[in-house]
Structures are given as structure tokens and as C-alpha cells.
Amino acid sequence: VQLVQSGAELRNPGASVKVSCKASGYTFINYYIDWVRQAPGQGLEWMGRIDPEDGGTKYAQKFQGRVTFTADTSTSTAYVELSSLRSEDTAVYYCATVGPWGQGPQVTVSS
């Protein structure tokens, strides 16, 4: 099982960012993909999850209205898009499923 994520991103406040997570080594549609982030000096924060089989999503209340999870079964890739970015969104963003997590790219929000 392997999850390979896209690279580090730098965004201005108010912008959006989209992070990818390409899965391999297992049947993509059989397991949820969870999204978790960790801000500097903070603990892990669960953002929500997507069921790649049917695209069903569950968002943590804190992020509702600002985050979108999608999954492309043709490429076994999941995505998280976060909009209206603010400095507090600066964090490492991980995807997770059965097995090892993705490497977690740094997303930095700064003017």
C-alpha cells in the first residue's frame, strides 16, 4: 500500500489549494480516504473522509463549506480542496487509508 501526495504549496490568503493523493497497492474503492492536517506545534486534526466507491463524503464541522473531497477512480487519486485560505490553514496535509499515510505536503498561507 502506498499513498503519494503532491508537493508543497504556497498560497496567498483568500486563495484555494488542491492537494492530491495517489493510491497504489490495494483496491482503491474498498477503503475510505481520510484527510488529516497538522499545523506547526499542534496536534493532528481530522478534516473528514471520502468513500471512493460512491464519492460519499463526511466533513468535520470546522471545515464545512470550505473543503471539498473528490476521488477519481480511473487514476486511484483522491483530492482535497480548501478555499478561502487563511494563515491558520498553514499545515501539513496528510491522506490516510489502510496502511502507511501519504508523505504530507506542507501548505503555507502567507502574503
Description of the structure:
This protein has 111 residues and is mainly β. The chain contains no helices and 10 strands. It has strands spanning 2-5, 9-11, 17-24, 33-38, 44-51, 56-59, 67-72, 77-82, 91-96, 106-109. A hairpin with a 4-residue loop joins β5 and β6 (56-59). It is globular, with a radius of gyration of 13 Å. The mean pLDDT is 97.
Strand order of the largest sheet: 2-10-9-4-5-6
* Rg (C-alpha, Å): 13 Å
What is the helix content?
under 10%
Continuous helix count: 0
Question: How do the helices and strands follow one another from N- to C-terminus?
Answer: EEEEEEEEEE
Q: What general form does the structure show?
A: globular
Question: Any low-confidence stretches, pLDDT <50, length ≥5?
Answer: none
Number of E-state strands: 10
Strand content: over 45%
User: Multimeric state of these chains?
Assistant: single chain
Assign the structural class, choosing from mainly alpha, mainly beta, alpha/beta, alpha+beta, or little secondary structure: mainly beta
Write down the overall mean pLDDT. 97
The profile of the biggest β sheet is: 6 strands, mixed
Question: What's the SSE blueprint?
Answer:
Blueprint: E1 2-5, E2 9-11, E3 17-24, E4 33-38, E5 44-51, E6 56-59, E7 67-72, E8 77-82, E9 91-96, E10 106-109
Parallel strand pairs: 2-10
Antiparallel strand pairs: 1-3, 3-8, 4-5, 4-9, 5-6, 7-8, 9-10
